[in-house]
Design brief:
Number of strands: 9
Largest sheet: 4 strands, antiparallel
Strand content: 25-35%
Helix content: 10-25%
Radius of gyration: 15 Å
């Protein structure tokens, strides 16, 4: 158990994304024959045969709508995998997707990037979050894939 919580996509966001994604596209579900897709709804990898979708998601836009921030040009959107149908959410209180190099990107309360840190070892996530939140200007961090920059999950100030 950690004091930092990986936040999955909220059920309200998932409901909207299953209708139209953040780029305005309708859901296009498919059966994941191989498995292994990083699901942002339950923060685990898909199993072979699960029905999933790849949707466009704007994490800062949705956070800004909740907080009143204005991320300006940092309001990016990108691809994320979700279950095509309702899902129970995360089943474990662990940090997911720590088995590869990731970037822990820091954001201010107004949605501006304040820097980041490359994390290459699973044991370095908690220290990276602690380092980020030592800065009083950091409101939240995104954990992102290094290869494509894809959003994996958000961690907010404890």
């Amino acid at each position: 158990m950690t004091r930092y919580t990986a936040r999955p996509l909220l059920p309200s966001a998932l409901k909207e994304l299953r209708d139209l994604d953040d780029a305005g596209r309708p859901l296009s579900a498919f059966t994941d024959e191989e498995g292994g897709a990083p699901l942002r709804c339950c923060l685990r990898r898909s199993a072979p045969g699960e029905r999933i979708a790849l949707v466009s998601y704007a994490p800062l836009r949705r956070w800004a709508a909740e907080t009143g921030a204005d991320p300006g040009a940092y309001d990016e959107q990108g691809p994320v995998f979700i279950h095509a149908d309702d899902c129970p959410g995360p089943q474990a209180d662990t940090l997911p997707f720590t088995n590869a190099h990731r970037t822990v990107r820091r954001y201010s309360a107004d949605g501006r990037i304040l820097g980041g840190r490359l994390v290459t070892d699973p044991d370095d996530y908690v220290p990276a979050f602690t380092e980020a939140f030592t800065d009083p200007e950091v409101a939240l961090v995104h954990v992102r894939a290094v290869e494509y920059g894809c959003f994996l999950y958000e961690v907010r100030r404890p």
